[in-house]
Amino acid sequence: MAIQPQLLEILACPICKEEVRPVPLSEAKRVTVRDKFRDKMRGEELVVEEGLQCVKCHRVYPIVSDIPVMLVDEAFEEA
Ligand SMILES: [Zn+2]
Predict the structure, then answer these.
(1) pLDDT for residue 79
(2) How far is the CA of 29 from the centre of ligand 1 (A)?
(3) What is the DSSP letter of 62?
(4) Ligand 1 midpoint to CA 42 (Å)
(5) 21-25-72-56 Cα dihedral, nearest 10 degrees
(6) What is the pLDDT of residues 14-58, one digit of tens each?
(7) What would you report as the CA-atom Rg of the chain, rounded to the nearest whole angstrom?
(8) In this predicted structure, what is the pLDDT of residue 1?
(9) Domain-by-domain residue ranges, the chain?
């Protein structure tokens, strides 16, 4: 389920425009993200294990079923 290096290279924090690095999400945050996105994905079972952390502001953007969600509203302050 690892994110592709080519994709990682083009992704950036929407606030800082800095690079992001994969980090594991805590169990609590995995559950939070799964619950939040389940409705949007029409009840489909989602895989949430990692996020992408900005090297500058340290916000963490969740990866939902291999799709990086690079939205400020969905970001955590830390992993
Ligand atoms: Zn940032």
Answers:
(1) 74
(2) 19
(3) E
(4) 30
(5) -40
(6) 999 999 999 999 999 999 999 999 888 777 789 999 999 999 999
(7) 12
(8) 55
(9) 5-74
Residue 42: what residue type?
Answer: R
For residue 75, report the distance from its CA to the centre of ligand 1, in Å: 10
Cα(56) to centroid of ligand 1, in Å? 5
Residue where the block lists tokens 């990692």: 50
pTM equals 0.89
Q: What residues flank ion ligand 1 with Cβ within 5 A?
A: 13, 15-16, 54, 56-57
- Residue 9: HSE in the Cβ half-sphere, 13 Å Cα cutoff: 3
Residue 13 Cα, ligand 1 centroid: separation in angstroms?
Answer: 5
Give whole-number Cα distances, 14 to 11, 33, 34, 40, in Å.
9, 19, 22, 22
Round to whole Å and give the CA distance between 65 and 30.
12
Q: How many CA atoms, within 13 angstroms, populate the side-chain half-sphere of residue 47?
A: 6
